Amino acid sequence: PVIRHILFLQPAVSVGNVGQLAIDLVISTLDMTKVGYFYTNCLVPMVGNNPYATAEENSTELSINAEVYSLPSKKLVVLQIRSPFIKNKYRPFCETLLSWVKSSECARVVLLSSSHAYQRDDEQLLGTPLRYLLTPDLEKAVGGRMQELNWKEMEKVAAYPGISDTDKVLHIPGGGITKLLFTESCSKGIQMAVLLKFCSEGDNIPDAFVLVNYLNEWLQLIKSEVNPSSQWKIPSSWRLLFGNGLPPALF
Amino acid sequence: MATFFGEVVVAPSRAGLDEEEEAREETPEDREIRRELEKKRYRQRCSGEIDVLWTWKSGGCGEEPLVCSRFIVAIGKNAAAFLSSFILDSVCWEVVGVVKLWNEWCRTSSTTNVLPTDSFCLFYRLISDPTVLLCQCSCYVAEDQQFQWLEKVFGSMQKKGLQVTILSTCPVADYKTQESTLTLASPFLKALKTKEFQDQVCCPLLEQPNIVRDLPAA
């Protein structure tokens, strides 16, 4: 299909940081170029050297907590968020973000997220841990594709569990700003898709791979051959995720 | 726990927003505590939690900015002590400003006569070259105050070819490297620099996946 409009991809800071890890894989594999950053007081500040460095030469570019990357050939723009929200600042951030999305040429937003695995009900424990959500405006455009892919929509849960008569609401525990962004996008007429995975804290690299492959089933960012996981390039910053080497004196 | 580049872990849950907490009703005690904290935090008249008081300004905001060519900022008790021990003296440097703030971890006052064990945030100017500014910030600037600190401090300056040097310390235990930190010759220096910084850096650059956070990062 011809991509006419810009696709905006971003993570939610959520359980296991799965969305953010998946975004790291996208940026690293597609070798995306940094085109800007969000100067915001809503995220804890951090800075470091280039997390996607592949050699000495490109390792000294500074990187901060909210940066934007692009790949013009696929009309893809990606936001990476690298630190948690400062208390009470997540709402202003969402508002700013959505008004930026509306005012720029981004036709579609895809939000990668995750939700606490332990909060699943009996039915959700079976089958795929992956879910999607579409705002009404995007449902019209791509709802059919989700059916073809046999994807599962995120179930609504009873507002008061145990009482059968209540309204069903959307509940994304551990999803960070996911629910807020989604509900706001619904009311603002933004075409947004949420892709999320049920998971727990721990080594979330496999979760990130599962989520990014899920994304790829739909968007076909990379060729998914026999083993799609091997096509994604792990960034150099993922080294030492579990701490340093051991002191020899220990043995 | 798996982390990735730039992850700053503070809360028990890494989902930055705990939905249940936000939805839960505040108990009367919670409300009272929150109100008291807010009252203390927002006590400053002028513009919120942080006040930057410059000695050359007669009062309030809206006077000419300080012309600054070099700004050295020492953040944290170690860096502040370094400046006190090796750089600052009453002959060459004069106090030109102080930051007044309050948060749950520390409070600074507007006095410029401080003891090394106090929490303070002072600005000094080199008498022989008044465009050289130095800041000693031994107090902790909370997450939600860091941006304000930045805006207020840098907002008072006229940046003419400004070069900023930030001095800070981190525990060796936080340093991520292939070998164990036990065998590292510490203390050691690492640097981060912007593209625009053209001078020679006196030590190696900070390798991934190490990061800097809080006020030095801001």
Automatic annotation (TrEMBL), chain A:
A Pfam short name: PAC2
Role noted for this protein: Chaperone protein which promotes assembly of the 20S proteasome as part of a heterodimer with PSMG1. The PSMG1-PSMG2 heterodimer binds to the PSMA5 and PSMA7 proteasome subunits, promotes assembly of the proteasome alpha subunits into the heteroheptameric alpha ring and prevents alpha ring dimerization.
Compartment(s) of residence: Nucleus
Name the record gives this protein: Proteasome assembly chaperone 2
Subunit and interaction comment: Forms a heterodimer with PSMG1. The PSMG1-PSMG2 heterodimer interacts directly with the PSMA5 and PSMA7 proteasome alpha subunits.
Annotated Gene Ontology cellular component terms: cytosol; nucleus
Family: Belongs to the PSMG2 family.
Keyword terms: Chaperone, Nucleus, Phosphoprotein
Biological processes, Gene Ontology terms: proteasome assembly
Keyword Transmembrane set for record: no
UniProtKB/TrEMBL annotation, chain B:
GO BP terms, alphabetized: proteasome core complex assembly
Keywords: Chaperone
Gene Ontology, cellular component aspect: endoplasmic reticulum
Short name of one Pfam family: PAC1
One example GO MF annotation: proteasome binding
Domain of life from the UniProt record: Eukaryota
InterPro entries: Proteasome_assmbl_chp_1 (IPR016565)
Family: Belongs to the PSMG1 family.
PANTHER family: PROTEASOME ASSEMBLY CHAPERONE 1
Protein name: Proteasome assembly chaperone 1
The organism of origin for this protein: Falcunculus frontatus
